[in-house]
Design a protein that fits this description.
homodimer; alpha+beta; five-stranded mixed sheet; 10 helices; 15 strands
Chain lengths: 383, 383
């Protein structure tokens, strides 16, 4: 399962003492090859954490031997010292693996603006290196949790190869709620360019269409590592599909576990003049606090949907907008449609369908409701 | 006080039975001249309520005899029938005033997507016309409340003239929380072009810099009516200042009474390369749910400030950002600054100062915290 489902990967998750208590807080994922091809996508935030700056630099070479991930501290907004801490982390892992720091990515998540406890972290790296195993994927997935209530793992079988993944962070890539970290592995044989293209395509359709609270993290990272250990050169279309499925599965797990959420809301935009228009409208609706509160209250408040659609510059005529909630078209032609009392708002999954009547393109953006629990969790948790 | 502070204006506020219960829900403001010059600014939402479409059309003539305002229903997303309802409302007021409907603006606020109870509304207009008086400003301000807990009124004295105003709606012009409606009156003598320029300048610096929840209403309207009854041609700079002060005063009242808010947050952006950059950064920070939760929890979480700044394309270098909360510079050079325990988060007013170190321009955006009360109010209230 998880990142060790494909051949050629070992992992470990240990309690390094970065977090208080004895919870796991450090993960190590190692690619034993023969290939080291890799790709990554990172937060679009201009305020980037030290590990993001480091890993972007490392990925420029298109190769990764290992990834060190820690929870308990984001190492963001920590200045040049914070960057040195990330560098030291990579050096420590390189030393333990008798390899080069230049092929070791680092990911961190937790509080912004505090230095990491480097003694604990470096011992943790050494400890994790000693515990690496072919079934360490679950422990690694556990070690990267922050406010996640459960570990997120996924895998898919391709024709002669595997794709596995783990993720954390009740959020999404861009923008992001809490930090989202994700490591995907495969034993298929691909070049870093192929991996990059597949990863960008998959994340743009999955993590990028999750928008739980419109906030973008300083640390979001999604990495894809290929060991080539299966000896199989995959069909690129099939491989892309498998990576997409793993991303979609992990994205769904992130959504369901989003901080304080009680509803999973799919915003399906149809009849758009273009796919970017559909995404734009979906994202705008996903960011309406008023609508998210209404859904929490099980109120099929289509007026708040239209108000959010109206803030975009997508192609549409206000009097041709149709909106269905859970299959009932309660708004037709920009005005009252079917009886709102017919809408069953009780299920956890809520689907809002918006027909722009402007074309044939579609996109779905996923979000959650806005709850008092979200407020409580984020009032108390200093991140 | 309120809209009847200046000479030449009468007003009334009555209970027409649009809302359930016997609360006031209909206001009428009449300009008895001699001048009828007027200007208006409206929501930027492309989904505009019928009264907005109507009033924009009326204002094209630059003259207003009267404004009818109702709470208890937004008359938004109500199709051609809703527009006819607005038209009938203006006709009814015109009949009562023996005047032309083409110089009567209409404003509505309340639920989206429901027709107004026109029998009640039209009787209410007639009733209000019968109760118009020089001291009806307070009753009018009371009648336009929805979730507002108090009436919002303001006035300023110029050199030989007055400026008065009333507003409703814990929100802002663009974007807007609930609907914001505002009527400002003056007995100074100005052309509609002068009023338009003054109003746009004043609202862009006041209501437009309120952002309580990032949501934009379908109904936001700010009107400025001049009776000329004082016979004074004002100095334009002074007049602009007075209108600005009334707008700022009303905006402050809206902020303090925003739905569920427990903190009033001023986001001062300094050192910006341009004023638009400063506004952009201020707005981005004002829309961070994570930050708004942190402030609610009295947590001086500057990391969430930087994360929000980093999502903008304003000119800045991440390692030159400084952030103060309530005067303590807890972030310097994009990293940890002064001791966060020095920040006193207990006062209701919280000031976040962001120094972009990129120039000399500044702007302040006002917002509120995000609370469980906001969630409760907006889960239960179908608007």
């Amino acid at each position: 399962m998880s990142v060790t489902a494909p051949l050629g990967f070992r992992a470990a998750g240990v309690a390094a003492g970065i977090k208080s208590g004895d919870a796991r807080d450090l993960a190590l994922v190692v690619n034993d090859g023969p290939s080291r091809a890799a790709a990554g996508v990172f937060t679009a935030n201009r305020v980037k954490a030290a590990p993001v700056l480091w890993s972007q630099q490392v990925l420029a070479g298109g190769r990764l031997r290992a990834v060190v991930l820690n929870s308990g501290g984001a190492n963001a907004c920590t200045g040049p010292e914070g960057f040195q801490d990330t560098h030291a982390t990579a050096e420590k892992a390189a030393e333990a693996l008798a390899d080069s720091a230049g092929e070791i990515a680092v990911c961190s998540t937790g509080l912004i603006g505090e230095r990491l406890p480097m003694d604990a972290l470096l011992s943790g790296v050494e400890n994790a290196a000693g515990q690496l195993s072919r079934d360490g994927g679950l422990a690694a997935a556990d070690a990267i949790r922050t406010t996640d209530t459960v570990s997120k793992i996924s895998f898919r079988r391709g024709s002669g190869y595997m794709v596995g993944g783990m993720a954390k962070g009740a959020g999404m890539l861009a923008p992001a709620l809490a930090t989202m970290l994700c490591v995907i592995t495969t034993d298929a044989e691909l070049t870093s360019e192929e991996l990059d293209a597949v990863l960008r395509e998959a994340t743009s359709q999955t993590f990028d269409r999750l928008d739980t609270d419109g906030c973008m993290s300083t640390n979001d990272t999604v990495l894809l590592l290929a060991s080539g250990a299966s000896g199989v050169r995959p069909d690129l279309a099939e491989f892309g599909e498998k990576v997409h499925e793993v991303c979609a599965d992990l994205a769904r797990q992130l959504l369901v576990d989003a901080e304080g959420a009680s509803k999973a809301i799919a915003i399906e935009v149809v009849g758009a003049a273009s796919e970017p228009d559909a995404v734009k409208v979906g994202r705008s609706v996903a960011r309406s606090n008023l609508l998210k509160c209404a859904i929490h209250g099980e109120d099929p408040n289509w007026g708040r949907v239209l108000a959010a659609v109206g803030t975009t510059d997508a192609e549409f005529e206000p009097d041709r907008l149709n909106v269905a909630i859970n299959g009932i078209w309660i708004c037709r032609g920009g005005a009252v449609g079917d009886d709102r009392s017919k809408v069953d708002m009780r299920p956890r999954d809520v689907t809002i369908t918006i027909d722009l009547s402007a074309g044939t393109h579609t996109a779905t953006v996923h979000t959650t409701d806005l709850t008092a629990d979200y407020v409580h969790e984020n009032s108390a948790y200093s991140s």
